[in-house]
Design goal:
This protein is an alpha+beta fold. The chain is built from three helices and five strands. The chain has helices spanning 3-23, 74-83, 115-121, and strands at 35-44, 47-52, 55-61, 91-99, 105-110. The protein has a five-stranded mixed β-barrel with strand order 1-2-3-5-4. Strand 2 and strand 3 (55-61) form a beta hairpin. Mean pLDDT is 81; it is low at 16-29.
Length: 127
């Protein structure tokens, strides 16, 4: 079978298979409610230890990756930078997006600004 005919046949097959899928409504995940938590400590440039509901929770910052504290010198710099807008004891808004493979909430953290975004904008983390 010539290449053009084979390509058209594959395209037609793909369209007939995908058409029923396209007609389905996408699954909508139930939104996870945001909540307020108190900062206990900054663990590294993308991890916070928080207290909410009488228990400690480790929060990973969503959509970013910052150097680990041990990755000198940038890890220590990223950690110190994150501590500036987030003093210990501050009440912060947590907007969960998912959980990581360890069961930790992965969230956007809002103080006066979106902390996740500020870290990327200021070169302290990667998106």
């Amino acid at each position: 079978m010539p290449l053009l005919q084979r390509s058209l046949a594959l395209f037609a097959t793909a369209m007939s298979i995908s058409a029923p899928l396209a007609a389905r409504k996408p699954a909508v995940a139930a939104p996870v409610a945001s909540y307020r938590a108190t900062l206990l400590s900054v663990e590294d440039g993308d991890t916070l230890l928080m207290q909410a509901g009488g228990r400690s929770i480790t929060i990973r910052l969503a959509c970013i990756d910052a150097p680990e504290t041990a990755q000198s010198p940038w890890g220590r710099q990223s950690w110190a930078y994150l501590m500036q807008p987030l003093p210990r004891g501050r009440l912060i808004s947590i907007q969960p997006r998912t959980t990581d493979r360890y069961g930790r909430p992965v969230a956007e953290v809002i103080s006066d600004l979106n902390v996740n975004l500020v870290l990327v904008e200021d070169g302290q983390a990667f998106a």
